[in-house]
């Protein structure tokens, strides 16, 4: 039963993961030179294919991708192993680092093609073996077989190319070589078509797909990618959280400083307002010049001053003037000063005395200055 997930399904999830692992492995291997990739993938060993032509043979040196590197035609009647060693030594190789196989003609191979769904990728070995037993007359003890599976671009199907050859063809080709079958690693054939893979039968036990280097490498790389993604996400989250915490501390500190500044500004505003208010009120209070002009205005022409003082009474917020001088009628000056709108409560502070030199009366008089009521209330 399939559970749709948009356009995908749960049953296709393993296929998608496998394709993701293969893509990740390919991208990873592209970072290395081709020689290193061949060593990592197990294709670093050279392949030596022997093509028999009666008493002579052609030695073909192939790379891991089964492409021809070099070839040489030799006579193998005497010692085939010695000829093989000489050929490999001329190429800087030893037989223990090379896989030796046979090249047989195309008529010695039977090719067949299977089309499997992508979900069957984990059971290809069993499917191919069952299909070979049911649909062909070959018996497993009489043949050598191998296959290669190619996934289509759309990922829905897997094309399986299977090659089969009779054991007798391989054994007959080995007779002139005096070569044991145990030392033979593979059998390769001439390609029958350009659109098909080169027929290649490995004579060594095939490693299960889940134990292959590519499967393990893809699994390790996928796990590595997942771990790196988790680490990258965690690191990004940690950096963001650290930045948020730092900003929170800076905001709290700035808020505290802003509150302090706001308090100082408010206090300065209040003081400035009070100062402006006092200055405004102070402008309504008569100053020294005003009081001087008022005193000279109200005094009669027969009187003049020798001293004028303005004194502020401490604690009472009152001002008073003290004037001294000469006058022809000093006793009348008390009433004259009291009649002024700026003075009140005038009184002589010393007895009136006649000055013989001036021929007038000397006096000293004191009076209080009238202050507006609103200024008195503000002063309190």
3D structure, described in words:
The chain is of the alpha+beta class and 380 residues long. Among the domains are: 40-206, Nucleotidyltransferase, domain 5 (2-Layer Sandwich), CATH 3.30.420; 288-379, Alpha-Beta Plaits (2-Layer Sandwich), CATH 3.30.70.2830. It has nine helices and 16 strands. The chain has helices at residues 13-29, 34-40, 80-90, 124-135, 167-174, 213-282, 288-298, 333-338, 373-379; strands spanning 4-5, 8-9, 46-53, 56-62, 68-75, 98-104, 110-117, 143-151, 157-166, 186-189, 200-202, 303-313, 318-327, 343-348, 353-355, 360-369. A six-stranded mixed β-sheet has the order 5-4-3-6-10-11, covered by helices on one side. Strands 12, 13, 14, 15 and 16 form a five-stranded antiparallel β-sheet that branches. The chain has a three-stranded antiparallel β-sheet with strand order 7-9-8. Strand 12 (303-313) and strand 13 (318-327) form a beta hairpin. Helix 1 crosses helix 6 (213-282). The longest helix has 70 residues, at 213-282. The protein is rod-shaped and about 175 Å long. The model is unreliable at 1-9 (pLDDT under 50).
């Amino acid at each position: 039963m399939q559970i749709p997930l948009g356009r995908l399904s749960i049953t296709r999830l393993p296929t998608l993961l496998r394709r993701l692992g293969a893509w990740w492995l390919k991208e990873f291997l592209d970072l290395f030179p081709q020689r290193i990739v061949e060593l990592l993938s197990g294709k670093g060993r050279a392949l030596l294919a022997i093509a028999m032509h009666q008493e002579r043979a052609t030695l073909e040196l192939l790379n891991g991708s089964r492409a021809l590197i070099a070839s040489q035609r030799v006579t193998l009647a005497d010692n085939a192993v010695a000829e093989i060693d000489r050929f490999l030594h001329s190429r800087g190789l030893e037989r223990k680092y090379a896989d030796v196989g046979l090249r047989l003609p195309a008529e010695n191979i039977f090719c067949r093609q299977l089309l499997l769904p992508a979900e069957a990728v984990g059971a290809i070995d069993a499917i191919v073996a069952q299909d070979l037993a049911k649909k062909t007359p070959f018996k497993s003890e009489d043949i050598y077989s191998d296959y290669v599976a190619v996934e289509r671009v759309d990922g829905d199907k897997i094309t399986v190319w299977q090659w089969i050859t009779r054991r007798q063809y391989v054994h007959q080709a080995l007779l002139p070589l005096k070569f044991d079958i145990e030392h033979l690693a593979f059998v390769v054939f001439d390609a029958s078509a350009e659109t098909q893979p080169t027929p290649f039968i490995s004579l060594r036990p095939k490693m299960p797909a889940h134990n292959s280097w590519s499967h393990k490498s893809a699994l390790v790389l996928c796990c590595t990618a997942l771990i790196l993604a988790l680490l990258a996400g965690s690191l990004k989250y940690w950096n963001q959280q650290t930045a948020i915490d730092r900003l929170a501390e800076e905001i709290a500190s700035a808020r505290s400083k802003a509150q302090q500044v706001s308090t100082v500004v408010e206090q300065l505003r209040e003081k400035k307002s009070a100062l402006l208010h006092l200055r405004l009120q102070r402008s309504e209070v008569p100053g020294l010049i005003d009081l001087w002009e008022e005193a000279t205005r109200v005094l009669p022409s027969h009187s003049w001053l020798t001293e004028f003082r303005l004194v502020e009474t401490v604690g009472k917020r009152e001002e008073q003037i003290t004037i001294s001088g000469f006058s022809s009628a000093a006793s009348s000056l008390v009433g004259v000063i009291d009649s002024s709108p700026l003075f009140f409560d005038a009184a002589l502070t010393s007895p009136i005395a006649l000055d013989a030199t001036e021929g007038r009366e000397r006096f000293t008089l004191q009076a209080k200055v009238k202050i507006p009521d609103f200024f008195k209330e503000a002063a309190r």
